[in-house]
């Protein structure tokens, strides 16, 4: 009989539950000043890295996810876009004063008339991460499918430091991160950047 605890999908789901709980309580216990200060300025190595990349893919923070839009102010941005409740994800150009609409999965996204773009670098939210670039997402596989189709685009996971684990369970469809940004550090996870 197979041991279900060895199934990476089940391991990931259990880990997601623990990390969402940990993230929720960490963010709830941050004072207002600390939460506002987090992710407001690009660390210098990262600022140098993205200086000539256009556009930069970001995301609209959902729930307890870090809000990175203030630190990217003034840069050409793209945001994830879903045409419907299917696995396909694209990126659409978005300006800070641009309109947003509720996407089919919940988070805000650029309207359908926004220009589709191929990002030069992707900041992606995460539920968990490890120091080797392992990324645990929400579980829908949207980013992993995009990363597989566009494997040359550098990817930086964004999360709170409490979301770090020793090792993220991986499957063949999981794409590793090139770096991770938390409120405490910018961590390179490979040699692609």
Name a few traits of the molecule.
single chain, 193 residues, alpha/beta, Rossmann fold, eight-stranded mixed β-sheet, two-stranded antiparallel ribbon, 4 helices, 22% helix, 20% strand
Write a structural description.
The chain is of the alpha/beta class and 193 residues long. The protein has one domain: Rossmann fold (3-Layer(aba) Sandwich). The chain has helices at 8-28, 32-37, 44-50, 142-149, and strands at 56-57, 77-81, 90-94, 100-102, 108-110, 116-117, 121-125, 128-129, 135-136, 155-158, 179-181, 186-188. The strands form 3 sheets. Strands 6-3-2-1-7-10-11-12 form an 8-stranded mixed beta sheet, sandwiched between helices. A hairpin with a 5-residue loop joins strand 4 and strand 5. The protein is globular, with a radius of gyration of 16 Å. The model has no long low-confidence stretch (mean pLDDT 92).
What secondary-structure arrangement, pairings included, does this model have?
Layout (H helix, E strand, L loop, with lengths): L7 H21 L3 H6 L6 H7 L5 E2 L19 E5 L8 E5 L5 E3 L5 E3 L5 E2 L3 E5 L2 E2 L5 E2 L5 H8 L5 E4 L20 E3 L4 E3 L5
Parallel strand pairs: 1-2, 1-7, 7-10, 10-11
Antiparallel strand pairs: 2-3, 3-6, 4-5, 8-9, 11-12
Largest sheet: 8 strands, mixed
- As a whole number of angstroms, the C-alpha radius of gyration is 16 Å
Question: In total, how many domains does the architecture comprise?
Answer: 1
Given this structure, which CATH class is correct?
Alpha Beta
The parts where pLDDT drops under 50 for at least 5 residues are none
Number of helices: 4
Beta-strand fraction estimate: 15-25%
The CATH superfamily label reads: NagB/RpiA/CoA transferase-like
Class based on secondary structure composition and strand pairing: alpha/beta
Strand order of the largest sheet: 6-3-2-1-7-10-11-12
- The CATH topology is given as Rossmann fold
Overall pLDDT score: 92
Alpha-carbon distance between the two ends: 43 Å
What is the N-to-C succession of helices and strands? Answer: HHHEEEEEEEEEHEEE
Portion in helices? 10-25%
In the CATH hierarchy, the architecture is 3-Layer(aba) Sandwich
Report the count of strand segments. 12
Bulk shape: globular
């Amino acid at each position: 009989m197979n041991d279900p605890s060895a199934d990476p999908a089940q391991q990931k789901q259990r880990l997601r539950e623990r990390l969402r709980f940990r993230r929720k309580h960490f963010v709830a216990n941050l004072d207002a000043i600390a939460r506002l200060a987090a992710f407001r300025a690009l660390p210098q190595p990262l600022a140098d890295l993205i200086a000539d990349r256009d556009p930069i893919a970001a995301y609209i923070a959902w729930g307890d996810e870090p809000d990175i839009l203030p630190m990217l102010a003034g840069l050409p941005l793209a945001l994830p876009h879903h045409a419907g409740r299917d696995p396909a994800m694209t990126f659409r150009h978005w300006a800070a004063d641009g309109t947003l609409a509720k996407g089919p999965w919940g988070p805000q996204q650029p309207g359908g008339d926004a220009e589709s773009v191929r990002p030069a670098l992707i900041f992606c939210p995460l539920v968990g991460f490890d120091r080797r670039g392992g990324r645990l997402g929400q579980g829908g596989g949207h980013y992993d499918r995009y990363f597989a189709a566009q494997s040359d685009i550098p990817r930086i996971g964004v999360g709170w430091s409490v979301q770090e684990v020793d090792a993220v369970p991986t499957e063949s469809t999981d794409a590793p991160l090139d770096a991770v940004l938390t409120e405490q550090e910018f961590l390179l996870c490979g040699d692609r950047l």
